[in-house]
Amino acid sequence: MRTIEHWIGGKGVCAPSPRTSPVFNPATGQQQAQVALAGKAEVNEAVGIAAAAFEEWSQTSLSRRTKILFSFRELVNQHQAALAELITDEHGKVLSDARGEVQRGLEVIEFACGIPQLLKGDYSDQVSAGIDSFSFREPLGVVAGITPFNFPAMVPMWMYPVAIACGNTFILKPSERDPSASLLAAELWQRAGLPDGVFNVVHGDKEAVDALLDNRQVAAVSFVGSTPIARYIHERGTANGKRVQALGGAKNHAIVMPDADLDYASDHLVAAAFGSAGERCMAISAAVAIGSAGDALIELVSAKARALTVGSGRDAESDLGPVVSSQARDRIVGLIGTGPAQGADLPVDGRELLVPGFEDGFFVGPTVIDHVTTEMEVYREEIFGPVLSVVRADSVDDAIALINANPYGNGTAIFTSSGETARRFQRGVKVGMIGINVPVPVPMAYYSFGGWKDSLFGDKHIHGPEGISFYTRGKVVTARWPHVDHESGSNLQFPTSS
Length: 498
Description:
The protein is an alpha/beta fold. It contains 16 helices and 23 strands.
C-alpha cells in the first residue's frame, strides 16, 4: 500500500508514528493509499524548521520573493491537469470542476505576485519640526493553514501564497482524505526556488491540529471547515495567543422572485446546488421561492435535476461525481429521509442511485425537497451533499427575515429583474457574500472571501486585502535627525507637534 508522506524542510518525510489513515477513490469505493498521520513530535519538528527558515525568508527582498512567486505561478499553470487529476481521484469531483478549482487558486497566486504594491506603507514628511513619520508592515513568523477536503488545492492556495509573499513561513495541514495535491504544490514551490523550510506539509488529524494550536512558535492559524471545528480552532488558538481566522459552515439561500427569468434561475440553481455533489461551502442548499414562483420553479428544477449524469469524475460525460466518503454518503441519505418523515415533498430522490461499473462508489443522486420549513432537519443541518431544499415565502421581506434568522451568514443570492428588489435585498441581508442573479458569489482574488455570524470566527476574511492584513502587523516609525550642532532642548512635557 502506497504511503503518502509529509513534506518538511524541503523533502518527503515518513512519520515514525505508526498511525495512518486510508485514502479512497470515492468513485470506486476502494482504498488507493494510506497517509501518514503526524503526532506532536512531527508537528513540532516542522514548526522548528519553519521558524529557522523564517529568519532568512523574512529578510528576503520583495523582488526576490516576487520572482519566486511568478515562477510558482507558471509551474502551477503548467501542472493544472495533474493537480486536477489528483483532486478527482481523491475527492471525487469531475475533472472540469477540479480544473476550475485550480484556476481559482491560481488567481490568488497571481494576486500575491503583486506583493510589492500590496505591502507599500505610508509616509508623512515634517509632522513636526524636523520629524518625519512612516509606517510599514512586517510578517508574523510561522503561520499554519488547516484546510478542508472539499477544495484540496484552492483553499490552501487562498492562504499560503499570500502568507509566503508577506515573508512568513507556512505549515499546511490538509485534509487527510485528499492530501496529494498539497504535496505536488510543495514540489512546485521547491522547483520555483522557494528555500527549504518555508513551505511544509504535515498530514494529520486532531492530534496534529492541537499540536499546531498549542505550539507557541506558531503565530497565526487559518482554518476552513465546519462551524463546530471553526469555533474550537478559534477558542483554542486565541487562548494560546495566536491570531486566528476560522471560516465555518454555511446554509446558503437563493431567493427566486416571481419576476425572475425562471428558466435562467433554475439552470443556475441546479448548477449551484448539485455541482461538486453539493460539497461546497458556497453551494446553494436552500431556495426560497416567492409567491407564484414556487410551483413553476419546482417543475423546472426537478426536470433539470433528473437530466444530470452522475458518474466517475474521470468520465467526461459526468455532471457530478460521488461524495467524498461512505460516511458522508450515509449521513446525506439519512438527512434526506428526514424530509418526507417531517412533512416535506420529495419530487426528486437520489438515495437509491447506482452507477453501472461503480457499484461500490460513494454516490448520491441530485435530490429536490419541496415545502421545507425552517423547523425541519433538512433545513437546519448543513447537509453538504447534492440536495436542494425549497422553502416557500410570500414576499422578499419575509425571505430576508428568514435568511437573517439563520445562524449562518456565508453566501446568498437573489434572482430578480427588479433593481429595487435587488438593492433592498443586498442591504437587508446579514450575509457576507451576496449574488444578484449570480448563485455562487465567490469574490475574485483581489477582494476577500468570508461570511458573517457562525460562518466566521475572527475579524479577518481570507485572501485579498484582508489576507495581507491578517498575515502582517504594522509598525509606525517617528524619526528625527538633528543637526550635529543642535541643542537638545528636551523637556518632560508630553510630546506635541510644533
